[in-house]
Amino acid sequence: MRTAFVALGLAGLATIAAAQSDPLEAAAEARESHMHLYQTNLGVLGGMARGNMDYDAEAAQAAADNLASLSDLDERFYWVEGSSSEEIDDTRALPAIWENMDDFMAKSDALHEAAVAMAEVAGDGVEAVQAQMGALGGACGSCHETYRAADD
Fold first, then answer.
1. What is the mean pLDDT of the chain?
2. Is the CB of residue 97 less than 8 Å from the CB of residue 141?
3. Binding site for heme c, residues?
4. Which of 66, 81, 101, 149 is at 20 to 30 A from 94, Cα to Cα?
5. CATH assignment of the domain containing 140
6. Residue stretches of the chain with pLDDT short of 50
7. Would residue 4 count as lying in a domain?
8. Which SUPFAM superfamilies match (predicted)?
9. pTM of the full structure
10. Annotated binding site: which residue ranges?
11. Mutual angle of helices 57-70 and 101-121, in 10-degree steps
């Protein structure tokens, strides 16, 4: 057991060292992780809204609160110039982000507003979640349509 903890600790140190040696890769990895968290929480709300999973007020509220918190984080360290899909591998962030940063940030603000609106009603019933999913999904899609490369 102790060996496993030591190995895990060494792996963590190697990851930290790698991130420090290439800040552009670290930025891309951070934003990918952030997007996975969005995806997980949106999946809960979307599953309930579509009827693919039972509505659970507590889970819906937790997912919505998570989205509101995630969308309120300072993301400046994720969107480092030079970390687009043209400069590094394994990212779908288009160079247009840095060419249109004001618009990109406006879309980020719209996502936050939609996430906060969802958090205000998510525990009130599946109908309330359904009513807010369009705005929330639209905010995500608006940014992805403009600033994310197609999935190969």
1. 90
2. no
3. 140, 143-144
4. 66
5. 1.20.120.10
6. 1, 5, 8
7. no
8. Cytochromes
9. 0.83
10. 140, 143-144
11. 160
